[in-house]
Specification:
The structure is a homodimer of 342-residue chains.
Chain A: H1 8-13, H2 27-32, E1 39-41, E2 47-52, E3 61-67, H3 76-85, E4 93-97, E5 102-106, H4 139-144, H5 150-153, E6 176-180, E7 183-187, E8 205-207, E9 213-216, E10 230-233, E11 247-253, H6 256-259, E12 278-285, E13 297-300, H7 305-315, E14 338-340
Antiparallel strand pairs in A: 1-13, 2-3, 2-12, 3-11, 4-5, 4-12, 5-10, 6-7, 7-8, 9-10, 9-11, 13-14
Chain lengths: 342, 342
């Protein structure tokens, strides 16, 4: 691993130690100074608004989710759009909150055939796509979608001046990580003797379970879930779920309305009684809301030089608080910045 | 990186695919089957009990913290014992809750010299010990404490049968990770050009900021904090704080009483008004409680074969839910099991 400074110009300009050197910009300051062109509008049909029942004190609880783009989206994101348009989640509930793990929502009676809420027609999601080691999303599948070759899309974080990697990005779960369309993603190892469950394809790729990731709950393998039961991560990244469960989005506003919910006391954090569940007032696609009510959000382009400098600063904190910059970062320590469109 | 199976005996005994193989034990099943001798009693003077004011519905809120052992403990843990014996925290408050980061407690008036609660006499904590790159905890310092040499203590997770590493333990923040006295710890790289803040010593070692870690809040570097203001991590591991802030313990029971607190709305998640703060009823060393009231806890020996098998199973999930075991784990995905003494 090589380490190069992206901020070389700043450092060369710093005066001798006896004088007061200008503080290096913090990651937040780098993002605040980004050009307008570095921000990418999130399509309105990729935004989901979940309104929970108001708090006891009457306060509103709105959560906004960005759905993952192709090629990671299929077929679950199509199902999620269908379910939102059918208003299927309205009146259902948060059913589970397990500390340092996930908050989950859907039909509390989903496993009771006599009481389960009928689903609209959904796309099949048999063991397939990137969650299967046998049919992982390969270079060919990626190229068929008209995307750049994986080895370009997944180039490691690079120096904007030298093209070299600027901090340690070692990852015990993958051969490399990078960012695709605003989402953290991993690239598979070329070989991995993983025991009785077999290995996975070289050059496969998958989205990552970081804090705030939204995934598709399911039963035992090979069930892949429909998209009707969803969860969000609100603890340390459970990367062992990568490639085992479909990641379909991430919470970009209001996650505190989920992460502060009382933890369930049954196994896996399920609530023991219906009264403990938080009702879902509604889940809507933003594109289905009246124009005047549509929030507009954008993310910092993960292909921009600004993002590369932000990632570098996350890994090499030079601001006044820090004694010893880390010189490295795991992918979930570099959250992709999001803001309301100014 | 080499990958070896610790569970080879189990796999060899499995019948052909046409038959129903016995499911591999889950990490929880491995821990549940541990011998009594694999459990280590936590000294009562290393346990801290924090009782928050009861919930609105009258429910108790007790948090139990395990203090970190030597050599990582000095001088902050001594100060924490002094503060608990002086009942210094009683009547103070939780002052900060920042989503996906930390909950912090101490004296809300601590930065106002006219109103700050007087501190008992505490040990000095100038820039020193392992949080300083210049005076990191070196091999020599470790050996002076009568401990085994660092390269033995920090041997990577090993196969119990072959001695070889059984899964990928790549770490972007350190050259290796391991477990010392029930705590996750990191071993420094031999060289690391970290920009203007300099490098750190080879063979230095430090405890890690995983979910639940308790650290010493402080002002700008080189302030190292006294131990009077503490925080716990309740989000993705903020490993960039390692070596910058002293880790002094970890929450081993009741973290949900901290992680579900409403998030503060001021900068950094501080509460805007005193009414939003949660009062601390008391913080006590368990060794100071009446014998009949003392909880007794133990952790799974991180030097035991059982722990090695547990860690292997965390990284290589073979139980029925999983399609594609990860083949790797980051240190914070291997929480050290703790239980009440049976």
């Amino acid at each position: 691993m090589k380490f190069k400074l992206l901020l070389a110009a700043t450092l060369l300009a710093a005066p001798a130690l006896a004088a007061q050197p200008a503080a290096a910009p913090s990651p937040g300051e780098i993002v605040a100074a980004a050009d307008a062109k570095d921000w990418v509008a999130i399509p309105q049909e990729d935004l989901l608004v979940m309104d929970l029942a108001p708090r006891a004190d009457g306060g509103a609880r709105r959560v906004i989710i960005q759905l993952v783009p192709e090629p990671f989206s299929r077929p679950w994101v199509a199902n999620i759009r269908t379910l939102a348009k059918a208003r299927w989640w309205d009146g259902l509930a948060i059913v589970r909150a397990q500390d340092n793990y996930v908050v989950q929502w859907g039909d509390p009676d989903g496993e009771d055939k006599g009481k389960a809420k009928p689903l609209p027609e959904l796309k099949p999601t048999a063991e397939a796509e990137y969650i299967s080691p046998a049919t992982a999303l390969t270079t060919q599948a990626w190229t068929n979608l008209g995307r750049a070759p994986l080895d370009e899309v997944f180039a490691p974080i690079r120096s904007t001046t030298t093209g070299e990697q600027s901090f340690n990005i070692a990852d015990p779960f993958a051969s490399a990580y990078a960012f695709v369309g605003g989402f953290p993603a991993a690239l598979g190892r070329t070989a991995s003797p993983l025991g009785s469950k077999g290995s996975f394809a070289a050059a496969s790729a998958w989205p990552i379970h970081c804090y705030g990731a939204v995934g598709v709950a399911r039963g035992l393998s090979p069930d892949a879930g429909t998209g009707a039961e969803l969860y969000t991560v609100m603890g340390h990244a459970p990367r062992h779920l990568d490639r085992n469960i479909a990641v379909v989005g991430r919470v970009i506003e209001g996650i505190e309305h989920l992460s502060t919910l009382p933890r369930g006391t049954e196994a896996l954090g399920f609530y023991a009684t219906p009264a403990e569940r938080t009702p879902i007032a509604s889940i809507r696609l933003v594109s289905e809301l009246p124009e005047a009510e549509q929030p507009k959000l954008e993310y910092l382009s993960t292909e921009s030089d600004t993002f590369a400098r932000y990632a570098h600063a996350r890994a090499n904190r030079e601001d006044d608080f820090f004694i010893a910059p880390a010189g490295g970062a795991d992918v979930c320590n570099i959250p992709v910045p999001v803001r309301r469109k100014p």
